[in-house]
Each structure stands twice: as structure tokens, then as C-alpha cells.
Amino acid sequence: TPKGKKVDRLSALPDDVLVNILDRLNVREAARTSILSRRWTQLCAKLSRLMISALDFLPKGVLCTNISDDELVRINAAVVQATDSILTRRNPGEHTIRLLSTRFYLRDDVPISIGRAVGHAMAAHLVDNAKFSVMTGKYEISDMAEDDLITSARNFMLFFDACPSAFGGLTTLDLENLRFGESDISNVLITCKCLRHLRLYNCDTGVCSTLQVEHARLRELSIVQCMVERVELKWLPQLTTMVFEGWLQFQDPLFIGHVPLLEVVSLTNLALRYDKTVFLSEFLSGTSIRDLKLAFNSEKIWVQPEFPTPCLASVFRQLRFVNLLHLPEGHDLTWTMYILEAAPLLKELYMTVWDHACNMEMDETKRKEEAYSEDKGVEWDLVAADFQHTQFGHTRHFWL
């Protein structure tokens, strides 16, 4: 090498190594490398992971929670341009797309443009996984009036109806802040035949409505802060993982039908003074889970300890890992022993005890008005004196 001349070791690497490096970047960052040379432009056309997100086009220093409508329009337009640009460079059928992920705002006709571009890509290329993350630009549930929820849902359904090919090949769908018509969710599930992951945040068909879910391929389901009274998992033969957070009523909020493979369950809620405690043998009846997470938001413990019963034994017979998150401080934890007694294969019990002031209502007047409970614990003194767990590894307690 001549003295003083820098060696370009990166460009000396083979194409497959460079593509592997570029696959670890988002599409906007990867596209910037195309100005280096014609070779780098061709490498961008070989990417196997295409992640195009509106959040990557935010102005520097601007948070996604503080964007004007005009800025949203500009960002969405950039997402459309990036999607079209990266997909039109590819030679049909030459390289498999392992992941095609697009995150965008539900504004104007932009979703339809993105949906059609993704549909065309599915027709021209082998796409293993395709994901839509549809944002409304609202980040606090309290910011959303009912009319906003209904309007957003109608706009989404216009997008859905205009892009059947894209939704037909979709494997992951992430939705937020939508109040659907009565049959809309069912129609989406019927069309999205390849769907494996579904997340609904603040989505429903009305306050205190019932959400029914049936799907042949769905593996992961997340229902978070949805204003539903009851969720019915009617027929989900492939479902392995469920997240259920923020149900409205503690009286039979969940029905589990034919869900034979369910093994990972995460349940989170804030219980008020008048809310009844839950029997997990009833809440999770019909399952045999391996991994259970229960979160209490530093408020009233909403789980009721139980005597050993055949139903409880059936639910806990395969249980290996339990995570009890944000238990309130200053309360007896003896009640957790019933889990040990009912779960013969349990390996780890993890507990976090924390009065998280940032997430709690600290104003005493509001706590009384809104029926927060001051007696947050549960009593349980029916632990056998000679009880020993033959498989149990260890318990981890964390007081923060």
C-alpha cells in the first residue's frame, strides 16, 4: 500500500457479509450507503430485512409525542417514498425478503399507497414475514375522544378494503386507538389468513364490548388497554403466547376455548377497592401454561390464593417460571406459597416489590374519590409446615 493511502477494508469484504451488516440497519440508514458507489447501490437491493418506520424520519430532537399534523404528513410521505424506492430496486424473485416491516401514521391515502406497494412486493418476491404497524399519532388514551377512535377505525377499514393482497400475506399486525364496527375485527382476521402476531392497543367495538378471536395460524396475541368487558379466545389452535392488560371487569373477563398450545401468559391490571380477587384456576381454566407473569401496578393484589384442587393442579402442572411484578410494598408475601404448592415443576419464582410513585396515584383525595384500595394485601396462612418443593430452584425477591 502506498504510504499515506488509506485502505478501504470494508469494501474488500464479500457481498454477503456487507449485506448482513446492512440488514442490521433501518432502511433509511442503509439507503445512505448507496451514495458510496454503484456496488453499494446494488447491495441495498439485496437486503433481506426491510424495516421502514416513520419514527426514523422524525426531525432530530423531536419526540414522537410532540408532532404537528403537517409534520405527520411530511413523515408519512417520506415513508411512502422510501418504501417505493427500496422495493422497485429489487429484481423480482432474486432475493428472499425475510422481513418487510412498515410503520406509518393513519393519515390521508398514505396507508393505501404503502399497502399497495407491499402487495406488489408480495406478488413479485418471496416474502417470509410482513408487518404493518399502524399509528394514529395519539399516545395517551385520555387524548382520544370517542369520535376520534371511530374516525380512525373507519380510515383503517378503508385502507384494509383497498389492500386485500397485502393483508392476505401479512404475518404481523400492530394496531392502536381504533373503535371498530361490530364485524370489523372478525373480517380483518378472516382476510389476514397468514397472521401469526396480533397486537391491539386501545382497540374495541365499544366500551364494555366483547372481543371474540378465532384464527387458524395466530401464535401471539396482545390485548392492551382495550375497553372490553370480556375476551373470548374461541378457536386458536396455534396460539402459544398471550398478553392481556387492563381489562375492565374482574368478573369473568376471559374465556379460553380451544387453545391447546398456550404456554406463555402475561396478565396486568390495576385493581380498585371494589374489585373482586381472581382465582387463577378459573381465569386460566383449560390451559397448562409454562411461563406466567402477573403484574399489579403497585396496587391491590388481585389474585386470590387457592386450596389445591384438580382444576388448579391442571392449570399449574406444567408451570416452570413465575414473575410477580410490581407487588405493593409493606404486605405479606406468604400467599405466594400456594403457587409453589400447586406447581410441582416450578423452577423459578421472581418477585418485584415496588411502590412505583411515577405510575401510582399519590394524591390522597383522588385515591379516595377513585376507589383506590389502602388494604392492598391478601392473607394466606394455610401453608403446610413440612412443605418442600422437590424441583424448585430459587426465589428472587427485589425491593426497589
Question: What does the model show?
Answer:
α4 (69-88) packs parallel to α5 and α5 (110-124) packs parallel to α6 (146-162). This protein is globular. The protein folds into two domains: 14-47, no CATH class; 53-59 and 68-397. It has helices at residues 15-22, 27-32, 38-44, 69-88, 110-124, 146-162, 164-169, 184-191, 280-283, 310-316, 337-342, 364-369; strands at residues 49-53, 99-105, 130-135, 172-179, 197-204, 209-214, 220-224, 228-235, 241-245, 254-258, 264-268, 291-295, 321-327, 348-353, 394-399. It starts with 14 loop residues before the first helix and ends with a strand. It has twelve helices and 15 strands. It has 400 residues and is α/β, with parallel strands linked by helices. The model has no long low-confidence stretch (mean pLDDT 88).
Tell me briefly what this model is.
28% of the residues lie in helices and 23% in strands. The chain is of the alpha/beta class and 400 residues long. It has two domains: 14-47, no CATH class; 53-59 and 68-397.
Write the SSE topology.
Blueprint (H helix, E strand, L loop, with lengths): L14 H8 L4 H6 L5 H7 L4 E5 L15 H20 L10 E7 L4 H15 L5 E6 L10 H17 L1 H6 L2 E8 L4 H8 L5 E8 L4 E6 L5 E5 L3 E8 L5 E5 L8 E5 L5 E5 L11 H4 L7 E5 L14 H7 L4 E7 L9 H6 L5 E6 L10 H6 L24 E6 L1
Parallel strand pairs: 1-2, 2-3, 3-4, 4-5, 5-7, 6-8, 7-9, 8-10, 9-11, 11-12, 12-13, 13-14, 14-15
